[in-house]
Each structure stands twice: as structure tokens, then as C-alpha cells.
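hey can u check if this looks right to u? its 115 residues, i copy pasted from the old doc so theres a chance i mangled smth
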Amino acid sequence: MSGQRYCRALDLIDDPVLIAEYQQLHQRIWPAVAEHLRSQQVLDMQIWRLGTRLFMVMDTGPDFSCDGMDSAARHNPEVQAWETLMWRFQTPTPWTAAGGKWQPLEQIFSLMEQP
């Protein structure tokens, strides 16, 4: 049984200095954050940017659970510190409910599903 791919979106605050700092911090994320992701069966995670819009692509193993990952993150002080730091740069998309962050994207096309 294989895992799943999750695609999410979030915005950055429209400030070139903050965007540059955000990108710099992602060149080498904190080891505890990387370990947390791997321990939750995140096999790969990529973040792409267009202007202030971020797109995350996350490939997971068969035992991955969003709820499990969120629960583990809430109990990890280093992950919480990272999330607090990241929120300094991030802002919800116009379609994000109050208190939300990364929002799921709706897949509308797949070449593999075409005849």
C-alpha cells in the first residue's frame, strides 16, 4: 500500500525582506523539524513560491495521518517554536477560515487519468 500526496497553499506577507528571510530559513530547516516530519511518515515535502503564494507538495507513507502529525507537533516544543517563527512571515489566503494556515488544494486534472 502506498501513501498519498497532499498539496496545500498559504500566502506570505508581501514584504521582499521577509520573503527573502523565509526562503533563507528554508535552505536548512531546524533538525528537530525535519526529524518530526520524517517520524510522521512524510517522505518528501517541497514548497514552491509564486509571488506571495506558497504551494506545498507533501508525499507521505502508508501510515501517515494529518491528525497524528498535528497532534505530535502540538507536543513538540521545537516544532511549535518553528511554527511560531514561520507565522511571522505567513498570512492566510483569502479562502482560509479564521485560525487556519495551509489550505488543501483541489486537484482538477491528472494526465495519468486521461485516456
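The chain has a mean pLDDT of 96.
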